[in-house]
Amino acid sequence: xxxxxxRKMQFSKMHGLGNDFMVVDTITQKVFFxxxxxxxxxxxxxxxxxxxxxxxxxxxxxxxxxxxxIFNANGSEVAQCGNGARCFALFVFLKKLIxxxxxxxxxxxxxxxxxxxxxxxxxxxxxxPNFEPKYIPFYTNKVKDFYLIRVAEKIVKLSVVxxxxxxxxxxxxxxxxxxxxxxxxxxxxxxxxxxxxxxxFMEIISPEYIKLRVYERGIGETKACxxxxxxxxxxxxxxxxxxKKVRVDLLGGSLSIAWNGKGNHLFMTGPATHVFDGxxxx
Length: 282
Description:
By secondary structure, the chain is an alpha+beta fold. The chain folds into 2 domains: 8-127 and 272-281, Diaminopimelate Epimerase, Chain A, domain 1, CATH 3.10.310.10; 133-264, Roll (Diaminopimelate Epimerase, Chain A, domain 1). Helices cover 15% and strands 41% of the residues. β4 (66-72) and β5 form a beta hairpin. The protein is globular and about 50 Å long.
């Protein structure tokens, strides 16, 4: 990194239920993020440290307020991050980049409406969950509620859904005993998921309450995954196992997910936390 031109870059450190982010305003400052630079910044020993890098960009379309970009710690760009969306909304509000509570952003694949309830809670309109395998993408011949796939000589039962990013959901009896790190790593890069996948392990406590652990693609297990919580609830509702409003407990805390079923948008409500502002010379 010593060969790079030294330039001061402002950033904020934020988190949503422990899923942590480096948030950078690229409207008032210009920075080029190479793969090498993202990996350096994400390093918790040598850089700033984060699960994902969030970029606030000028709108690509006059009908939206901002463009929202997300990069994993390994430098790969992804299309969705629910916890990040809540932090994105709080960031632009705190930095006075906008003066309204309902914020429209575009992403790599869709548009989202982010609604600031107060300085701690944000509601995100995640759009309608998509169960069509080709849009996840997932290689299969037809749409099913559950799929059986072979992983390391074992058969795993799972559901698939897209919330703008690919998810599979595995029902488990005990979330604490689920083989998250081992099975998550194997499924993330399984050949049936050509763009890799986020792997969700769901324990249903009641129709209104689930526990969830998530192995995120390009990262590993995280404290929380907002789109993963949405994916798990969407699959549960679609299969008739969950109510229309569900509390989701993750390692880092709780989210509220509401969905009235197919043909409707899904809503996620949860906290966003600003930790500190900083700068780094690049």
